[in-house]
Amino acid sequence: MISALLAGGCKVGPNYRAPAMPAPPAYSDNGHNGNWTTAQPADAKDRGAWWQLYNDPELNDLEQRCANANQDIAAALHAYEQAHALIREDRASLFPTVSVGVDASRNSVSANKPLRTGAANYWDFLIPVDISWEPDLWGGIRRQIESTTAAAQASAADLANTRLSLQGILAVTYLQLRGLDLQAQLLRSTIDAYAQAAQLTQTRFVGGLATQSDVAQAEAQLQATRAQLVDLRVQRQQYEHAIAVLVGAPATNFTVRENPLAGDPPSIPTGLPSQLLERRPDVAVAERRIAAANAQIGVATSALYPQISIGATGALESAKISRLFRSDSAEWGAGPSASQVLFDAGRRRARIEVTLAQREQAAALYRQQVLSAFRDVEDQLSALRVLEEEAVVQGRAVDAARQSADLSLVRYKGGLATYLEVLTNQTILLNDQRIAAGLVARRMVASAQLQVALGGGWSTSQLPPN
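RESULT FIELD:
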């Protein structure tokens, strides 16, 4: 027993070291250039509810409902609970197992049994107690605990990643819906203007200053724009239904109030690229899986060493229940045992090779996940920069189209232009305005996607302890 306790600090197999990964010194959508660094806990500042940057109370409420009622998040939470329970199950293997039983039987001995002695019929009352313990001499159990602990941490990070992903989808969907509200607002004001233009052509037609063709063209333009507004309602309802599922509510009768999108995206601090390794829960999932796979190498290696156990058995046994609890009814035995596999045709060695390959596979997947994380951030930074430039240029196009439309209408009223010229310029203006409105939504969506790419408000400090 003393030898087992002294050897209890031994753990076979490699100790875990986090893999090094490339981290550029700064973000740039023109490419990656940097040095190899090892991920370290950093940037502990918690951005928390990142969607609050948009100052939208309805979005804040929807995000909270998503966190509390979304069923995918609930499923991920229960997966973490299972992983946490597995840690307790493995830790129990470090302690002795004690079992007790009760047995009562009536026995009959054959009268023709050779060398029969004693009574032919008797009772046997038995209360057995068994104690067994396998000291963790080689650290196999502790390595298994390391593995399940890392797996539980991966499950916790997976829960955070599920929550971040779904709340990001909710923010994007909500901003897209508000983008449709902006386009609907634009179409309504345009319909009012087109209705006035149609009335103008009708008045001029009655006065003999316009043709029936002018009236028909104005009416066609008006009705086509109304049809565009109706079409937006289909898209908006689909977005509402998607939001309902995300917040765990039936799509039936679920509505989001109309609120046209306006303004520029909020400023979002990106931090250093090296900090991204500590901010992305999906990266943490991949890294913790390497740790779990690494510990399994030790579990497999411990099978090469002798298995040593210490056991004790005891019982109270008597033919009469009245004498069962007397001291002379007690019997016991105790002692250690050891066993060693001498030949298994390479099975244990093959198992070690399997765990080594599994660790390298997990490391490769981790590196790929990190590269994907850098790409996600660069994609959204590039999108924000390009869309901002495009919005400026598109704003100029809208101004020019509005001026052209106003001038052509003045020319038409003065009899210097046909209504076809007015209609053409108004169509160009509406098209440019809708593109500009779409850019407002695209820029907001890109900002939300950037926050998700940066990990939202999460950090590895939120992982459960070892």
